[in-house]
Specification:
heterodimer, A: about 300 residues, mainly alpha, 13 helices, B: about 280 residues, MetI-like fold
């Protein structure tokens, strides 16, 4: 979101480097990115297809793999929905009003990013695990959270907690409050104001937050690994299924499932780039309109 | 709620949105995190100390912090270079390269983990190149560092990029017209304005690397005392039902994360002050 279009820079000799330096620096940068980004990505797809298309198809359609896909989609949809509602509410409160302790609140919202995934899982084990705070009570009432689907959802919600909020807060802050104030003074209700005035202004940022939130939710490994218990076909998400297959010395199947996740990552990157272009275009249009209005 | 309000606003919904945000924040984040400290409080100080200074725990801290620091430093240098090339030079496929920088954010860590392990294993593409040189990457601390470098790659690039883009051409021209050569201009004019953002990026990459689990556990081989990172040790202790031990290690890591978070906020504040509004 923060990356703007590179301004066309005049290649004046005083403020740029000699050609050979430019070439050398570009080559080093690209070589570094090639080794660290492109090779891992390539190896996923090549290994996935190493046993042929038939084996690939079998690996991604076997019942355990399909169960993992279903669980991943379920956990991700619940997490994205909950964090979307929270993100909008938090951004509304933080961006449209002045109150004390605001920056502290923003720091608290960012907290899950600073916590190791393993600790994110651990805290729920300490709360709901058999030896945990509510463990005995849950056990008496035959409710399972840890080593079951609710625990996986909780851990996923935790690790993806800040995504939508942190995308929306700066954006809504930048939009200011004048448009909302105008809408309210013209008699619009809170919801009307949000859906007719605020939402159209923030839709791309919102979409971007949701895309990032979803990618992390589907790919989360550490936190989910702590609370899942690795029960095949029941509490294995796709990233966990990849681990299980890999540790069972079945790399081709592991990479086949991994390739689905890698595809998701690529789609995420493409969507992100598309949203960025869109926002840039909207901004440019806005600037042009503003310029045409000023005499 | 109204006590908190400094200025009355006509826009409705303050109470409900703030109230809901605080409730949700408490339920999902604050209360669960507090349990961690409550659980540690059940240990005596001596028991806590013995737990976190046992040789195996110390070895895992040393590896986690050491490898993370090296990886963050590599990312500091290479991230600055990548950001520079992406902002200042034109080459074919730049947009794709720019988009690809975020891959470590988007790629699930277990996928990155098995891919890196396959690459750097003895018979992997990179392993085959390194093996004749006598370098073992997979299942050594070097492998851990490689995985952490991958995971932290986007941070420095993405913090430096916007600052570099907004950097005025004028100061560089001024430096050049006053007789500075290109290297001097970079060292004395450009680099000082980039420094806060480079440091912020390094701190972010370090914070991420210390807690990282998924991409490391495959390539590290998980040998106690040698290639066992702190997050994995928490996991191992949990699997042995050593809740107190797992919690003690987690608290140390969490406190460090808070210190880092504070440092990052301070750095960003410095960055903003030094470099106007952003």
């Amino acid at each position: 979101m923060t990356v703007k279009e590179a301004a066309p820079r005049p290649q004046r000799p005083t403020i740029t480097e000699p050609v050979w330096v430019r070439w050398l620096l570009t080559a080093i940068a690209l070589a570094f990115l090639g080794v660290f980004l492109l090779l891992p990505l390539a190896v996923v797809f090549i290994e996935a297809l190493s046993k042929g298309l038939g084996a690939y198809g079998k690996a991604v359609t076997e019942p355990d793999a399909l169960a993992a896909v279903r669980l991943t989609v379920t956990a991700a949809s619940i997490s994205v929905f909950l964090n979307l509602v929270f993100g909008v509410a938090a951004a509304w409160a933080i961006a449209k009003y002045e109150f004390r302790g605001k920056s502290f609140l923003i720091t608290l919202i960012d907290l899950p990013f600073a916590v190791s995934p393993v600790i994110s899982g651990l805290i729920y084990v300490l709360l709901f695990g058999l030896q945990g705070l509510f463990g005995p009570w849950l056990n008496d009432h035959d409710i399972k959270i840890i080593f079951a689907v609710p625990g996986i959802v909780l851990a996923t919600v935790f690790v993806t907690f800040p995504f939508v909020a942190r995308e929306l807060i700066p954006l809504m802050h930048e939009q200011g409050t004048e448009e909302e104030e105008a809408a309210v003074s013209l008699g619009a209700s809170g919801f009307q104001t949000f859906f007719r005035v605020t939402l159209p202004n923030i839709k791309w940022g919102l979409l971007y937050g949701v895309i990032l939130c979803n990618a992390r939710a589907m790919g989360e490994f550490g936190a989910v690994s702590v609370v899942s218990g690795h029960i095949r076909g029941i509490t294995n998400t796709m990233p966990l299924h990849v681990e299980v297959l890999y540790n069972e010395y079945n790399p081709a199947a592991a990479f086949a499932v991994a390739s689905l996740l890698a595809l998701l990552a690529l789609v995420t990157l493409i969507a992100k780039t598309a949203v960025e272009w869109r926002t840039q275009r909207d901004r440019k249009e806005l600037v042009e309109i503003q310029e045409s209005l000023t005499p | 709620m109204t006590v908190l309000l400094k200025r009355r606003s006509v826009i409705p919904g303050f109470g409900i949105t703030l109230g809901y945000s605080l409730l949700y924040l408490s339920l999902i984040v604050l209360i669960p995190l507090t349990t961690l400290f409550l659980k540690t409080a059940s240990l005596t100080l001596a028991a806590f100390w013995e737990e976190v200074t046992s040789p195996r725990v110390l070895a895992s801290f040393k590896l986690s912090f050491g490898a993370s620091l090296i990886a963050a430093a590599i990312n500091g240098v290479m991230g600055l270079l990548v950001a520079w090339v992406l902002v200042r030079y034109r080459f074919w496929g730049k947009r794709i390269v720019d988009a690809l920088v975020d891959l470590p954010f988007a790629l699930p860590t277990s996928v990155a983990g098995i891919a890196l392990t396959t690459l750097y294993a003895k018979n992997g593409w990179m392993g085959q190149l390194l093996d004749p040189l006598g370098i073992q990457a997979a299942f050594t601390p070097l492998g851990v560092t490689i995985a952490l470098t991958f995971i932290g790659l986007p941070f420095v690039v993405r913090t430096v990029q916007p600052v570099l883009q907004d950097l005025g051409v004028e100061v560089e021209e001024a430096a050049a017209s006053l007789g500075a050569n290109r290297l001097q201009t970079f060292r004395k004019v450009i680099f000082p304005s980039l420094l806060p953002s480079v440091l912020t990026g390094i701190a972010l990459a370090f914070a991420r690397a210390v807690g990282e689990y998924g991409s490391v556990v495959f390539i590290s081989g998980n040998m106690p005392m040698r290639t066992e990172i702190a997050p994995l040790l928490i996991m191992t202790k949990l699997e042995q039902y050593d809740y107190a031990g797992a919690t003690a290690v987690a608290v140390v890591m969490l406190l460090l994360s808070f210190v880092l978070l504070f440092a990052i906020n301070a750095l960003q504040w410095w960055n903003r002050r030094k470099y106007g509004a952003r």
